[in-house]
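Predict the assembly for these two chains.
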Amino acid sequence: MVNGASEFDEGSAVTARVGEPGVYDSALGEGWRIGGGVNGGVLLAIAGRALATELGTADGDRPAHPDPLAISAYYLTPGVPGPATVRTSVVRRGRAVSTGQASLLQDDGAGGEVERVRFLATYGDLESVDGDITTSAAPPDLPPPDRCISAAQAPPDFLKHASLLQRLDMRLDPATTGWAVGEPSGNGVIRGWLRMADGREPDPLLLLLAVDALPPVAFELGLPGWTPTLELTAHVRARPAPGWLRVSLTNRTLAGGFLEEDAEVWDSEGRLVALSRQLARASAPAPDRR
Amino acid sequence: MVNGASEFDEGSAVTARVGEPGVYDSALGEGWRIGGGVNGGVLLAIAGRALATELGTADGDRPAHPDPLAISAYYLTPGVPGPATVRTSVVRRGRAVSTGQASLLQDDGAGGEVERVRFLATYGDLESVDGDITTSAAPPDLPPPDRCISAAQAPPDFLKHASLLQRLDMRLDPATTGWAVGEPSGNGVIRGWLRMADGREPDPLLLLLAVDALPPVAFELGLPGWTPTLELTAHVRARPAPGWLRVSLTNRTLAGGFLEEDAEVWDSEGRLVALSRQLARASAPAPDRR
């Protein structure tokens, strides 16, 4: 990233619509596709940015709450490249935190709108968090990035519908990439290093992408199909330091065709900066590519 | 429980309001108080029951989805004993799952309503889950219930605002109850056995209570104060077998005054039947007892 906006900031940009308070115009980019749709983390970041604009401004005696402490996304239909609308509403403005709701919608091709994702979120100010952390959590032990496996080495079949990977510099721990050569470990763990290909440094909004950017942990369970997310909730716990992120995905239980994927994101100073859990459906048929 | 409805079914009952589709009348019971308000798990169960009514009925070619697969609660203001209204709306009816939204409101004492909790949830049918589980998760190793510590043994100061505990038969692992005698381990783990005092057997709705029924894990971190939940998301993964539940709470990171509490609930057959994570605020001042 030399000049202008980063790919992430462009890909998650929102513009307040004149005359319609709380409504934002956005676009889902071709460059953020993965599997059968647009990456769910980008959708989370788009809504997260719209809500940051709504809640990140002080209102009377209520201070600004610019950072997503907790954000839940209920995925309804797969996002497709093209224009999108984010409709936000403030649920409650508080002194310590504020809560908002958002819907991400797209044209349904028949003159109406179809909702892609419904969100709820509570925002606060992570400025106060610096240096005030007690934890028993230790970052994952990974080989150095140059001894990990770059996404660029993924099989062409996988890369075909994965323009997202061109935005990312992702280096996966070779101990967790058996799936890529048809030998999934069955362990339910995928972990690796992550940064943006254009050098854009992490911040709370980027962490919303990071929690859903790695290949689905279902791959390492031997489920190579489409695993659509039903629900994902992310907690941002601290503003990340510049540099590489470490991301670990784990799964423990697959039941009735549903599995959870837990993500943990660590910054370059070894701090646990984000946690997420999603419920996904295993090996569903790929959606229509509308 | 000999005759009639169980305490849980009474405490989480909802009645469809005539002439107002999607609106339910309920009541927050005096018998479900804990700390500064009504237990958040009961509020979750009340909304969960209203949504189960809305989504649990087949609609044209869309089958019934009676079970909460994922439900997120954003707590806004503390619930107090008294009448409550649940307003639901269907976000999307699908073939495999359906999504709904709900608000739990109470009278604000000035002729208006104050919202206590906003919910999003995706429902499905857990009937299909039986026997179809692969997992690497093992239930917590607990001493037998008669060698654990009953909530009835808790200090009187704690029991004073804890009518909830009379509804529960809770037996905590003595290794995780140092907080009760002023010697918290600092480990960030509380675990124990749980069943309803009146013998009501667990089902998916009861699991929504179970994930938020134990003492807050913050106690074992040496934070004895009020730890209000900002957000809690629960995943119900299977219908529980009758008998004791085992519940384990863990925390790993306290940052900026916020901590996560992860709950896992296991049924008497050793299956992981529910997972939840909440974000809570540590040692906030107790709210007014309105």
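The helical segments of chain B are 7-11, 40-55, 156-159, 204-210. Residues 31 and 163 of chain B are 5 Å apart (CA to CA).
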